[in-house]
Write a structure and sequence with these properties.
Length: 135
């Protein structure tokens, strides 16, 4: 089986000219996964390995039967950002030794919407501290 590395969508040159494709934007991604309980130490180790392999991950929260991963993705549009996010868990399940959980939630919002939600007090708080943390 050939394993492909997960990569973000190319950014182009940023000129936005007529001959260029759409200019990339930043998208805030929240990926939720869950499944049968697994030892907390294994869940944490897997998420830490995923963060090490892909330093774009901002923060992960976890319990023995679910986890949430939040990060910024650079992509041309929401469809591209969502496609990358939906591959993240499955493509790295074996290399990071992640639990065999399924994706149960995905939110992809643009940078402006993210900051607007935070400013209005109903969005997710900024990802501080960065890293892997229990719920």
């Amino acid at each position: 089986m050939v394993r492909r590395a997960l990569t973000s969508v190319g950014t182009g040159d940023g000129t936005g000219g007529e001959d260029q494709g759409p200019v990339s934007r930043l998208w805030h991604v929240t990926l939720s996964v869950s499944g049968k309980p697994a030892p907390l130490s294994e869940v944490r180790r897997g998420l830490e390995q995923l963060a090490h392999d892909h330093p774009f991950l901002l923060t992960s929260r976890y319990a023995d039967d679910h986890a949430e991963i939040r990060y910024w993705e650079e992509a041309r549009d929401l469809h591209d950002a969502a496609a990358v996010a939906l591959r993240l868990w499955g493509e790295h399940r074996s290399t990071a030794r992640l639990p065999p959980w399924e994706i149960v939630g995905l939110e992809v919002i643009d940078r402006t919407t993210y900051h607007q939600r935070v400013a209005e007090g109903y969005g997710p708080p900024p990802a501080h501290p960065v890293g892997v943390h229990p719920y």
